[in-house]
Amino acid sequence: MNLQEMASLLDAKCISNDCDLSNIVINHAYACDLMSDVLAFCTPGTLLLTGLTNVQIVRTAQMLDIPAVVFVRGKVPLDETIQLAKDNNLPVLLTNHTLFEACGILYEKGMKPISRDREI
Amino acid sequence: MAAPVCLEYRIEGNDFMVAGAASNNIKNTLKMLGISSSVCTRVAIIAYEAEINLVIHGGGGVLKAEITEDRVKLTAEDEGPGIADIEKAMTEGFSTATEYAREMGFGAGMGLPNIKKNSDEFNIESEVGKGTRLYSTVFFNKQ
């Protein structure tokens, strides 16, 4: 699923340097408000959905090569978060859906969970 | 690679705005050196968790990365309160993080176990009232 389709499914506003969101294709997603758990369980290349909006979400995304982040529940990220995301070419989607709804919508359209037997 | 590449960063305590920048630099340096992305990710996770620990628990400290031909050695050192029971601190789910740290998305008690899991060699030394030293090595070609 590409980011353009995702934005449309989630009625999301996209903040991104890249004009063509359809270039970014993501097939796996992970939803969590605990960055420690994201670092422990999430695999690189996975979409992150979260209700936390501080700069550490972007830092976590950097560490794991997360290609895009969806902020749920209508949360507006801090200016510093948006700036850091732009500086790092990390597209960000803002949706009013709850975490559960956003996950449900994407899951229904074929988005897959991460594989849980991740071995380092 | 002829000479080792040494990176050293002073990490400020309780500064969540800048936290992670040092780890990102370490990760980008490894990428530039052509290290495989799976190793880069493991090192990034170790460095970032250690850096966050310095921010949350250590009252700041120093994060170092020494990159040689076949490995990267990470050291995180602080002069904070120290860890009374290291075995307990290594248990998944155990955390003494502040409410503020939890609001930032940390303090789930996953940090140290996750550092160990991603390391090829791991050691931690701590003394209450003196501080903590964490060592982690990742080899580039180890399967």
Could you walk me through the main structural features you see in this protein, from its secondary elements to its overall organization?
- The complex is a heterodimer of chains A (about 120) and B (about 140).
- Chain A is an alpha/beta fold and about 120 residues long.
- Chain A has a single domain, classed as Udp-n-acetylmuramoylalanyl-d-glutamate--2,6- Diaminopimelate Ligase, Chain: A, domain 1 (3-Layer(aba) Sandwich), CATH 3.40.1390.
- Chain A contains 5 helices and 6 strands.
- Chain A has a 6-stranded mixed sheet with strand order 1-5-4-3-2-6, sandwiched between helices.
- In chain A, helix 3 (about 55-65) links the parallel strand 3 (about 45-50) and strand 4.
- Chain A is globular and about 30 Å long.
- The model of chain A has no long low-confidence stretch (mean pLDDT about 95).
- With about 140 residues, chain B is an alpha+beta fold.
- Chain B contains 5 helices and 5 strands.
- Chain B has helices at about 20-30, 35-55, 85-90, 100-105, 110-120; strands at about 5-10, 60-65, 70-80, 120-125, 130-140.
- Chain B has a 5-stranded antiparallel sheet, covered by helices on one side.
- The longest helix of chain B is centred in the N-terminal third of the chain and has 20 residues, at about 35-55.
- The chains are: A alpha/beta (about 120), B alpha+beta (about 140).
- At the A-B interface, helix 2 and helix 3 of A face helix 1, helix 2 and helix 5 of B.
